[in-house]
Amino acid sequence: MLYPSLSDLLKNVNSRYMLVNIIAQRAREIAAKAEETGEPLQKKPVSAAIEEIASGDIRINANNPC
User: Fold this and answer.
1) Which of 10, 13, 46, 65 is in the most buried spot, having the most CB atoms within 10 Å?
2) Exposed/middle/buried for 49, CB within 10 Å: 0-12, 13-18, 19+?
3) How confident is the model at residue 66 (pLDDT cuts 50, 70, 90)?
4) 3-state DSSP call for residue 14?
5) How many CB atoms lie within 10 A of CB 65?
């Protein structure tokens, strides 16, 4: 079983489409920051973005995602 589950992630976001877009946008930000600073990543950017959403570190606003 994958953690976090899709149902857990959808508690923080209204739709799957919005969830995918937010994850992709945040993953790009994480990758760009790592490349800019030259810091190696401990996890893949997508995994890190998913964990941030699941933990509630990212606040999602319907008018302004991320």
Assistant:
1) 13
2) buried
3) low
4) coil
5) 15
For 18-52, write each residue's pLDDT tens digit. 999 999 999 999 999 999 999 999 999 999 999 99
Q: What is the pTM of this model?
A: 0.78
How many C-beta neighbours within 10 Å does residue 66 have? 14
Tell me how far CA of residue 31 lies from CA of 5, 27, 43, 44, in angstroms. Answer: 23, 6, 10, 9
Which residue in the block uniquely carries the two structure tokens 């950017």? 45
Report how far residue 62's alpha carbon sits from residue 37's, in angstroms, rounded to the nearest whole number.
31
For 21, the token pair is: 């877009």
